[in-house]
Design a protein that fits this description.
Homodimer. Its main location: cytoplasm. Keywords: Cytoplasm, Methyltransferase, S-adenosyl-L-methionine, Transferase, tRNA processing. It catalyses: guanosine(37) in tRNA + S-adenosyl-L-methionine = N(1)-methylguanosine(37) in tRNA + S-adenosyl-L-homocysteine + H(+). It is found in: Cytoplasm. This protein has 8 helices and 10 strands. It is an alpha/beta fold and 237 residues long. The chain has 2 domains: 151 residues, Alpha/beta knot (3-Layer(aba) Sandwich), CATH 3.40.1280; 67 residues, Trp Operon Repressor, Chain A. The strands form 3 sheets. A 5-stranded parallel β-sheet has the order 2-1-6-5-8, sandwiched between helices. A 3-stranded mixed β-sheet has the order 3-4-7. β9 and β10 form a beta hairpin. The longest helix has 19 residues. The chain is elongated, with a radius of gyration of 22 Å. The two termini are 43 Å apart. The protein binds S-adenosylmethionine. S-adenosylmethionine binds next to β5, β7 and α5.
Length: 237
C-alpha cells in the first residue's frame, strides 16, 4: 500500500481495533493502506522493561522517558518525508484541512502518549508535531490516533464508494453539513422537506446551502466567523 500509518504505542493489542472493521477494515485487508504497530516497551533497556519515571519537579503520575521513546522512534526508521505526530491534548486541534494533507502524503508516524505525558526533550529532539483531537483528556493516545487514521483512510483513493461523499460533507467548505433524509416519506408524523422531493436540483442545492449556513452560524460561531472573514477578504480583493 502507498499510504501507511506507523503507530508507536504501549498497547499494540489495541490495534487495529475499530480500524479493522467496516470501511477502514475492508480497505486494510484490500491493501489500500497499511498499518504498522510498534511496541514502545520493546525499546526498554532494564530488567523490568520500564518506560516511565516520576516527573522532575514532583507532582502526580509518571512521565514517558525521552531516551526510551527516542529509541522506539529511531527503531521505526520511517522515511524522512513522513510526518511525525504526537497525539496530545496540548497539540494543535486536528482539522479536516490537516486530515486532507495527511491523507495526500505518504502517511504519518504517530506516537501515542500514556500516563501524565512525555518528556519534553524527545518532542523537541525528534521534532514531533503535537496533534489534539479535542479539548478533553483521554487516558492515552491510541483512541486519538485511531480517530486521526480513520479520518485519513476514508479519503484515500478507492476507499469510499463515491468520491463525491468526501467533497460535500461537513467542513469541506468551512460549513457543517445540511440535514439528510431518506425513506420513508413520513416518520412519526414528520415529512421529508418538500423541496427535496421536488426534483428541482437548483432549489435543492440552495436549500442545502441555506441549511448549512444556518447550522454553522448557530452551532459553530468560530467556523462561521472564519467563513465571514474569508468572504470579506475575497470581495475586498
Ligand atoms: N497530562 C497531560 C495533559 O494534561 O496534557 C494529559 C496526558 S493524557 C492522560 C495521556 C495521553 O493521552 C497523552 O499523552 C496523549 O497521547 C493522549 N491524549 C489525551 N487526550 C488527548 C486529546 N484530546 N487529543 C490527543 N491525544 C490525547
Amino acid at each position: 500500500a502507498a499510504w501507511r500509518a506507523t503507530v508507536l504505542t504501549l498497547f499494540p493489542d489495541m490495534f487495529p481495533g475499530p480500524l479493522g472493521a467496516s470501511l477502514a477494515g475492508r480497505a486494510l485487508t484490500g491493501g489500500l493502506w497499511a498499518l504498522e504497530t510498534r511496541d514502545i516497551r520493546a525499546s526498554a533497556t532494564d530488567r523490568h522493561r520500564s518506560v516511565d519515571d516520576t516527573p522532575a519537579g514532583g507532582g502526580p503520575g509518571m512521565v514517558l522517558r525521552a531516551d526510551i521513546l527516542a529509541a522506539a522512534i529511531d527503531a521505526a526508521a520511517v522515511a524522512p518525508d513522513r510526518p511525525r505526530l504526537l497525539m496530545s491534548p496540548r497539540g494543535r486541534p486536528l482539522t479536516q484541512a490537516r486530515v486532507l494533507e495527511l491523507a495526500a502524503g505518504p502517511g504519518p508516524l504517530i506516537v501515542c502518549g500514556r500516563f501524565e505525558g512525555i518528556d519534553q526533550r524527545v518532542i523537541e529532539a525528534r521534532a514531533l508535531e503535537e496533534v489534539s483531537i479535542g479539548d478533553y483528556v483521554l487516558s492515552g493516545g491510541e483512541i486519538a490516533a485511531m480517530a486521526l487514521i480513520d479520518a485519513c483512510v476514508r479519503l484515500l483513493p478507492g476507499v469510499m464508494g463515491k468520491q463525491a461523499s468526501g467533497t460535500e460533507e461537513s467542513f469541506s467548505a468551512g460549513l457543517l453539513e445540511y440535514p439528510q433524509y431518506t425513506r420513508p416519506q413520513e416518520f412519526e408524523g414528520r415529512q421529508i422537506p418538500e423541496v427535496l422531493i421536488s426534483g428541482d436540483h437548483a432549489k435543492v442545492a440552495a436549500w442545502r446551502l441555506a441549511q448549512s449556513e444556518a447550522l454553522t452560524a448557530a452551532r459553530r460561531p468560530d467556523l462561521w466567523a472564519g467563513k465571514a472573514d474569508r468572504t470579506k477578504k475575497a470581495t475586498d480583493g
